[in-house]
Structure formats: C-alpha cells, structure tokens
Amino acid sequence: MNEVKANPKSIWMLFMLLIPWCIYGQSIENWVSFPKNKQMFQKMPNLSWSIDKNDIHQNPILLNPSNLDQTIDGFGYTLTGGSAHLIQALASQEKQALLQELFGIKPNQIGISVLRLSIGASDMDEEVFSYDDIALQKEDLKLQHFSLQKEKKALIPLLKEILRINPNIKIFATPWSPPTWMKDNQESKGGKLLPKYYEVYARYFVKYIQEMKHEGIVIHAITPQNEPLHPGNNPSLLMTAEDQLIFIRDYLGPQFQKDRISTKIICYDHNCDKPDYPITILNDQEARKYVDGSAFHLYNGDISALAQVRTKHPDKNLYFTEQWTGVKGDFYGDFMWHIKNVVIGSLNQGAKTALEWNLANDRNLGPHSPGGCTECLGAITIDKGIQRNVAYYIIAQASTFIPAGSKRIIIKSSSNLPLVAFVRPDKKICLLIQNEVPNNQKIPFQYLNKTLELDIPGSSVSTFLFKL
C-alpha cells in the first residue's frame, strides 16, 4: 500500500483558511429595546466581523479588553418592607415564578445581583418603626429591647427564598431614622442624632448585622443614613457631613473593628449636587480608614459628581444606590433618561452598582408611611397579577447582560452616543449603546484588528454580546 504524504504547503493554506472562520467568523449577538413602542429586548439577527482592512473606518469605537476599570457588584432595587409584604402575600407558585424571574440567571430571567434594605422602616413601609422602640422619655443604652420581630413576617422569610435562588446576591442596608429616643426631637421625621447616643447607635448597627447574620442573611455594606440632607421625609434624619465624619471616625468604624464586623461602611448616600459631603469625610485621615466609598442618588446635581469624588480619592469605591420613577412619568422619557444617567452614566463614572428605588407597590402606590412617597412607582405593580413598569426594564437592560464580577472596559470613542462596555466573568464582551435621536446612526467599531459598522436604530438602546 502506497503511503500518502501530506503537502506542508497545503496544510499551511488550509490553516490560513480556517483562522478567519474560527476567529473572525464568530458572530455578535444583538438585542434592541424600542421604549417608544414598549418593544423591549428584541433579538436581532447576529452580526459578523470583517477582516478586510478596507473596511476600517475613521474614528471608530476602539475596544481594548485589557484596558479595564472597576469590577461591577451589580444591579437591583430597594426591597422595601412594603415590597416584601406584597410579594410574600402572593400565592406560592406565583411568588416562586416571580422570584425566579427577578433573581435567576437563566433565559427570561433578569439576574438581579444587588438588593438594598432599610434598617427599620423606610417611607415605603405601612408604619414607621425602628428595631428599638420604647416609651417616650426613656432610653435603652444596652439595647435590651432590640428586635427584628417586625421583619420576620415578610422581609426575612422572603430574603431567605431569594438567597436560595442567588446565594451570592449582595445586600446593602441603610436607616431612614434612628430610634426616636436617640433624636433631639423625639420624632421619626427630621431631627438630629444626639451626640450622647453616637456610641449606642454604633452598637445598634452591629447588633443589626449580627442578628441578620444569625438569620442567614449577610449584610455586604451599610450607609449611616439614607439621604442625610433630606430631613423632610417620614422617617428621616438630618446628618451633616461633619456629624457623619465624627460618627464614622470615632464610633461606627472603631465599633466595627472591635466586634470584627466585615460589613463595608459607605458614606453619604444622597444627591450628586453635594460631592463635597463625601470628600469632607474621605479627607479625614482617620475616618477614611473605615470607609469603603461613597453612595449617590440623582434627584439633584449631575452624574459627573462621582468622578469629582473619584479624582480626589481614587482608592475609594463609588456606588449608585437609588433613583425613583414616578407614576406621572412617561415610559419612553424615563427609560432613556435613566439608561443614560443611572446606568451608562454612573458606570462610566466608576460606580460598582446601579440601583433603582422601590421593587414593588400595589395599585394605590402603597404601602407607604404617613407622609411617605405617594407617587413612587415600583418596578412592578402587584394587583391581581403582576405589571412590569419602567424601572423593571431599566434594570433588566443592564442586569440581564452584565453579571456581577464583570469589569468595565475603558473605551476610546469620538461617538456622541452614550455607551459602556464590559468583560464578563465568562470572557464575553458586552457593549451597551444608546441612541437618543429618532434617526438610525451608523457607528464604526473596532475590536483588536476586527471591525464592523454598527447600525444603531433611532430612539433605542442596543446590547451587543460576543466572545473575547
């Protein structure tokens, strides 16, 4: 039998033919949301790379996957007490389907990876309470009356079910008010924390974290006060930057250290119009030792405030922790503004999280406290079924495609379109692009030595996904 010898030249030619098929022939998955028509996450035909040098355009979006920035903790909502009661009251099968949809990572599940809780009541609880409520003119310096009993009906059982679906979810927590006996006005609304109770209030945080851990719920991070410069809500508290600095530096930080609490301390947790607030705290060499970073909302100011803080303190993390949508809002306008600012904007400024406000409400926009928000629209409305509202889709646009652990890619681009990109833990790249104008826009895109022209539909948000 004659032996057939391979021709080395033929093997080399075959190898060269296979390289484009193996590497450049990989397709790019594409989804587009058209919020004007409420046509969300429409799967579009896959795209293909070009390796023809003649196809390289001037001023493309340049994507270098080795040029990385912050690691993403994820996206989500505040699981208010009102949200928890509404969801917990659903029939078992309906509740499980909803929780899988919200917290699962399979197709048709949006993969929420961060939840924010209130320590005690927020204004989206039916009643106002703390975990140490006692008679007027009394005090409880040893926290003997501390109890999570009010959370054991809905919030804690629901969190346990969520953790069974996603054990890695990160939980942030913040108080709307301390117990009233610690305040100068003895009321849930407004007032200031009396300095003589700073030490016991620090122990209150420790006790909360320890009691939640006893329930199997790990608190990843806390902020000392929700919206510390807005004492007009019910509940609420006024806490100036100087007050918070002293509380963290001299009481909360040392108490965490003494009790070996690994929960992160994040300062501020309010609007982008006061970047001087977190900067004041981080400028203090003692206080900053205990502080992981700063948290922001965007009811006032500009999202660029995050970069101002990062420029001053590049070693500290940034978080975006709350933005509401209102019942009187426009779906298209709200979706596009939030994608531009809360999602793409905050992430490009270095934020590790992007959170919307209340997860769920009923058809009357409740429950809420007396004096609480009467126009806050939850991500879902529960009323003889489940209605998905604009905040659901805002978070889903990010959380579905950008899992926790993704790293942001620093993009070089002359495009005027808002965009952000990530390397995911599975080594896929996700690119999110928004087109606010009615007309389609063609955007040249280059990844290493592969190119293509992206056709971004007008008034849309596009997501592209491809292998590294």
Automatic annotation (TrEMBL):
MF terms (GO), sorted A to Z: hydrolase activity
Record flagged with keyword tRNA-binding: no
Pfam families xrefs: Glyco_hydro_30, Glyco_hydro_30C
Name of the protein: Glycoside hydrolase family 30 beta sandwich domain-containing protein
Naturally occurring in which organism (per UniProt): Aquirufa aurantiipilula
Domain of life assignment: Bacteria
Domain Glycosyl hydrolase family 30 beta sandwich as annotated: residue spans: 405-464
Assigned keywords, A-Z: Glycosidase, Hydrolase, Signal
Limits of the Glycosyl hydrolase family 30 TIM-barrel domain: 72-401
Family named by the database record: Belongs to the glycosyl hydrolase 30 family.
